[in-house]
Structure prediction request, 122 residues.
Amino acid sequence: MILWFTVVTLIVAAGGGLLCVVLGLAGRRPSDLSVGALALLEVLLIAQVVIAIVAPFAGNPTSGSLLEYWVYLVSAVLLPPAGVVWALVERSRWSTVIMGIAALAVAVMVWRMQVIWTLQGA
Prediction:
């Protein structure tokens, strides 16, 4: 993984997650702002999939379990769309909070992926 890309993804995930939680607790239903935050996070996660495929060929292999890394990555890629689908099916303030929780979970998963990639075998 690339450290600066991980940091950008963490900032977007944590920021989007906090934004959605605050908007939801303030009573706002899902909007372009909250769904857009998760859409941006999803774009970054798809870019991370490409990076994870190319990185070993570029001389940046994982030091930890490759299977564990990919399970985290696939799960992280699936969380934002699942949160958005939930929010569009049940348009309530709580669905906005759920989107925020999904984004915060992705932030934790991205950090764990960084640890698996760089530190686990060291």
User: Anything to note?
Assistant: The CA atoms of residues 45 and 77 lie 6 Å apart. The chain is about 80% helix and 0% strand. The mean pLDDT is 93.
